[in-house]
Automatic annotation (TrEMBL):
It is found in: Cell envelope. This is HlyD family efflux transporter periplasmic adaptor subunit. Residues 1-25 form the signal peptide. Residues 179-206, 250-277 form a coiled coil. GO terms for cellular component: cell envelope. The keyword Signal applies. It holds the Pfam family HH_YBHG. The keyword Coiled coil applies. Residues 373-443 form the CusB-like beta-barrel domain.
Amino acid sequence: MHKKLAFLVVTGLILVGGVGTFSQAQETVASTTAVTSGKTPQQISLTADIAPWKQVQVVPKVSGTLEEVFVELGDKVKKGQVIARIDSKDIALQVKQAQAALISARVGYEKAKSLAKIQAECNFKNAQAAFQSAQAQLDLTKATARTDFFTGLTQATVAFKIAQANLTKIRKGARPEEIERAQAAYQQAVANFHNAQKDLQRAEDDYNRGAIPEQALDKAKLGFEIAQAQLTSAKANLELIKKGARKEDIQIAEANLEQAKATLDKLEKLKEAKSWEVKIQGVQTQWENARSAYQLARTSWEDKLWEKDLELARAQVQNAEAALALARSRFEDCTIKAPISGIISGRFVDEGSVVGPGAPLVSIVDISSVKIVLHISQEDLDKIPLIRKIAVQIENYLNKVFVPQDINISPTMDPRSRKIKVEIRIPNPDLKIKPGMFARVKLILEEEK
C-alpha cells in the first residue's frame, strides 16, 4: 500500500513538472497534491484521439444547379449564415402556380359558402314542385284515361257511320229535304269547328301558364281534330248532295269511309289491349321518377349534405395552402445556410455543379469544444463519475489541465478490444486543439476520503 501511494505521489510530481510552462496547470496540480493528510488524487493514464464537438455535412434539400458558393476551406461561419445558393427559377414558378391555385381554391370556397345552401334549397323546392305536378298528372290520368279512350271510340264509330251514310246517299242521290239537312249539318259543323278551335287556343294558353295539365291539352286537341274532320265531312257531303254524285265524288266518299273504318278498327284493337292502362303506366313511371328525385333532394336538404360540399371546398383551400407552403419551403431551401457555427472543414463542389439531396456541399466542424475520445477497461468504469479534471498532453504542442464540460459513456463494450468508449468534452476557446490529433491524457479523480 505504501508503495502504491508513493507511486501516485511521484506520478503527481511528474505531472506538475510536465505542465510547468502552463501556470493554470501548475496551480491545479499543486492544489491536488499539497494535501496535509498526505493523500493524493487517483489518476488514470490513457491515450486518446481528438474529435470535434460537433461535425455536420451540409446536404441540399432540393436538386438544381449550384449558382454560388460563398465559403472556402477554413472559413469561420455562424449558424444561419448563407453559404451557397442553388438556381431557383423553376421553383419560383412553382410558387407562383401554387399561389394561383390557392386563389382559385379560395374563390371556389367563398362561392360554395354563399351558394351551396341556396342551391340545395332551390333543388329541394323544384323537386317538390315537380313531384306535386306528377302526382296531379297521375291522378288526372287515372280518372280520365279510360273515359277519354271510350269517348274517342264512340266518336270514331259515329264518324264511320256518317261516312257510310254519306256514301250511300251519294250513290242514291239527294232529295230536297236531304239537301236541307245537309245544309244544317254543315252549318252546325262550322259552329262546332269554331268552338273547338277556340277551346284549343284557350287550352294551349292555359297549359303554357301551367294552369292545366298536359292531359287537358290533349283532350282539347282531340276535340279540335274531331270537329275539323266533321266539318270536312259535312262540307263534302253538302257539296256532293248539291252537285249530285260523280264518279270521283263516290271515290272520295269511299276513301273517307275506308279511313273512318281504319280509325275505328285501330281503336277497337287498342280497346282489346286496354291501351288506357298503358298510358296510366307511363304516367305512373314518370310519377315514380319524380318521387325518387324529390326524396333525394329532401334528404340532401334535411341532412344538410350541402355542408359536405362546403367541407370539400374548404379542404381544397387547405390543400392549396399546403402546396404553397411546400413550394415556398423548397424555394427557401435553394438558399443554403450553415446549420451550426464553426469552421468549414471540407468543400466538395464548385459553382455550376448539379447538386441534390444525395451529396454534401461542405462540412462544418465546431471546435470551440473538443471531445477527448478514449477507451477504458471495465475495471475503471466505475471511476468515470469521479473524474474532476483531465490533463491533456499533445507531444511538442500542448500540455494542459482542463475541467471536463461533459462526459458521455457508451452503453456497449467493444467485443474485440474489451474496452468501453468514453467521450469527454473540454473547452477549446483558442481553437488550438485540432480534431484528429493524438493525445496522452491523465484522468484526475476525486480525492479519496
